[in-house]
Amino acid sequence: MRKKLLCIIFLFLLALGGCGAQDGNSHVPVAGEEIIPSNYAKEKNWMLLEEKGQKPADVFYLYPTSWARKDKKDYPVSTIQAKNMRKRARSVAASQARAFDMAGNLYAPYYRQVEAAFILDRDQEEQMAYYGGVPKTDVIAAFDYYIKHYNQGRPFLLVGHSQGAVMVKEILFDYMDKNPEVYKRMVAAYVIGFSVTEQELEEHPYLKFAEGPEDTGVIISYNTEAPGMTEKNPTVLPGAVCINPISWTRDETPASASENAGSLIKAEGREQKLEGFADARIDKERGTVICSTVDPAVYHSSDVEHFPLGIFHRFDFRFYYYNLKENAQVRVEKFLEEWDDE
């Protein structure tokens, strides 16, 4: 009886964290280790789930880092049930995911995350190893379940920000490589708030980076900064490539704030559309999008200590919100036109 009870306790701890006990000194699984994925047959593990799928295309959305430990002695990977993660994820999705609600049916799983304060202290290789552990295990399992049970053969967009963007990259680099028939239905992948690099594109030659506003089967990616940044941006990798989210071009020609379709900014106590707020220019040397019309002291990612003043990480979506909203619809319409012609 005692042995059976100990076995039950051990399995319970595994289910909580995907690995052993929940304390800060426990081993955190990395890429390549055996990890039990969360169960995506359970509807409660989905934040957004349009089961009937009325629109002709889907959107598979992955939220940014929404998990933070209350005590640094706690385990740095969330459980799938973590209330503060789920609450924060729903809050962020209310704006980010809804930017794409006209483009397709929304699907968004809850997934276990690595805390930003834990992972951003590591070098790039370590970061990717941790991202490729528990978070990737959940995301790949969720996407596979979505494809097999909800997608019904429809075209789809992939959308993610920050840690969610890293997870979109994992789907692109791993799942799409193994499932080319699924990749054929991908309208576009919006990898916002984390870099895609020239080297990664060379290592995965089946992937294409966007060149304009209408191309399909492509990756769209950028990170937003103020002019004159010299400090390290923790979400920008060496060799990063990006696209201008106003003009949807790859060169360094500035796009003025007057050309911006609209930003979603909290002003006068409420969120509202602001026109003429944020401009955009690509800095190819840094591999980022530069916004010169916004005060960095006001729009600072101050809730994450690893982001120096002048990095607009929290506002990657918001500065170009209506550009993203319109562009997603344009790409879906273009894909469906070509899809019907085949």
TrEMBL record:
Name recorded for this polypeptide: DUF3089 domain-containing protein
Protein origin, superkingdom? Bacteria
Keyword list (alphabetical) reads: Signal
Q: Which Pfam families match?
A: DUF3089
The residues forming the signal peptide are: 1-21
